[in-house]
Structure formats: C-alpha cells, structure tokens
Amino acid sequence: MAENLTRTRLKRRDSILSIAFEQFLKTGINATTMEDIAVKAQVTRQTMYRYYRSKDELALSVELWVLNAIFSRLRYLFSTADGLGIESLLKIIDTVIPRFVEEFAADLTYTGIFDFYYRNYPDPSFHTQITEVLKKYPNPFTEIIKKSANEERLKKLNIPIELIGQTLSDSLLSLSQRALLRRETLQKEYGFDPVIMIPIQMKLMISSLIP
C-alpha cells in the first residue's frame, strides 16, 4: 500500500511539473499562477502546495528538469566527436547542433524565459541546486578544446581552457534562446531562419582554436 502511495505521489508530482512547464511556456512565469497550474493538473491548490511550496520553487524544479535533459543530450551528442579530426568535428556540428536545437526547442525556450524572469534569484538555494546539476555534466566544449586545440593559439589567448569551454557553452545556449524566443520576428527581419546561425557561430569559434 505504501509503495503504491509513493508511486501515485511521484506520478502526480511529475504531472504537475510537466503541466507547469507547458503553462510557463505558454503564458510566462510572471503571468502564471499556482491556481492556473492546479486547474490544468486537476488538483486542489492545497495539493499543489504539498508538492511545491511556491511558484518560485516550481519554476526552479522545471528549470532543473530541463537542464538535466539538455546537458545529458549534449554530452551524448558530442561523445560521437571523440577522436575526430577538425573537418569531421565541424561537419558533426553542422548536423548535431541544428538537430539538438529543434529536438529541445521547448526546453531551450524555457531556459530563456527562466533566465529573463529570474535575473536575481529569490533564494540562495537556487544557485546551489543549479550548480549541482551543472557539476554532473562535464562541459563537452572544454573536452574538445583540451584534446584538439592549437597550443600556440591557446598560449596567445592566455585564457583558461575551462573558461573557453564555458564561453562556448553559454554562447550556444544564449543564441539558441534568442533564435527560438524571437524566431518568427527574426525570420521576417533577416529573411532566413535564425536557427541556422547557431552552428555557424559554433564553427567560427571552435575553428579559431583548432588547426
């Protein structure tokens, strides 16, 4: 009986998380209330608060869920580049990055919504919980630079490899967020789908470091 109760609670928690994700994407974090999510999840407000004490806690839980999915996928995709030459690596970026962005369009969009809304975290524990997620996934760009970068170019730059890797990772996420959040508008302005700029940016940055 206790095991069944636990499964039921876990299933309900995951359902609330999934519905909150969809609702935050649709109306934004600011315009969404706990009551909105409770109605969609077909639970009472009291039940909602048993699982998540506040909208902030719920929004953070969605962000942690999304980050785990994004970085787990990135790690897997770039594992195929291990040991490849620069030509093959850049070719993989041409195919892997657009596929990744399309596959995780909703997740990447949510990170943009979350970052904009929480320019300052309401609780120090946000930093701790997000850092714990990031620690689980070695930065794939850092690994690529360590294995393949031109040592002379790195010396001239005088920038720690870890910082270069983080810059590449953040560049991927930030351009993906902009391209997806404003996709239709930018497409009208540029005359092309802004998502195609994402692998170009990665190739330009990586090829400047690798012979």
Write the layout of secondary structure elements.
Elements: H1 2-31, H2 34-41, H3 45-51, H4 55-79, H5 86-103, H6 105-117, H7 125-135, H8 140-148, H9 151-157, H10 161-181, H11 183-190, H12 197-207
Descriptive labels:
211 residues, mainly alpha, Arc Repressor Mutant, subunit A, 12 helices, 80% helix, elongated
If you had to describe this structure to a student in words, what would you say it looks like?
The protein has two domains: 53 residues, Arc Repressor Mutant, subunit A (Orthogonal Bundle); 140 residues. It has twelve helices and no strands. Helix 8 packs across helix 10. It is elongated and about 60 Å long. The termini are far apart. The mean pLDDT is 89.
| Helical residues, percent | over 70%
Number of helices: 12
Q: Which structural class matches the secondary elements?
A: mainly alpha
Oligomer: single chain
The gross shape turns out to be elongated
The overall number of domains is 2
What percentage of the residues does DSSP assign to strands (E)? Answer: under 5%
The termini sit apart by 62 Å
Report the C-alpha radius of gyration, rounded.
Answer: 20 Å
